[in-house]
Amino acid sequence: MKFYELVDNIETIHAQLQEHAVRSINNALTIRNIFIGFCIVEFEQHGEDRAKYGEALLKNISFRLRDKGLKGFSDRNLRQFRQFL
Fold it and tell me: Domain limits at 33?
């Protein structure tokens, strides 16, 4: 194997595995969002067909999560997670 082939092989391996990692992370985040949405809907509906709630729930959840140092959980994001269902 020549030097330029070694460099090309390393570049190819890196690119392919990096793309795989990105897809895996995207899949995991999508699954996370679906589960979070499910938990919110279940909490809101208490087993009923429709929920009786206001936007205060999502704002309160968002505030508590941010208070715990978690990022990416704005009330807008939580509303979008809930729409996955």
Answer: 3-83
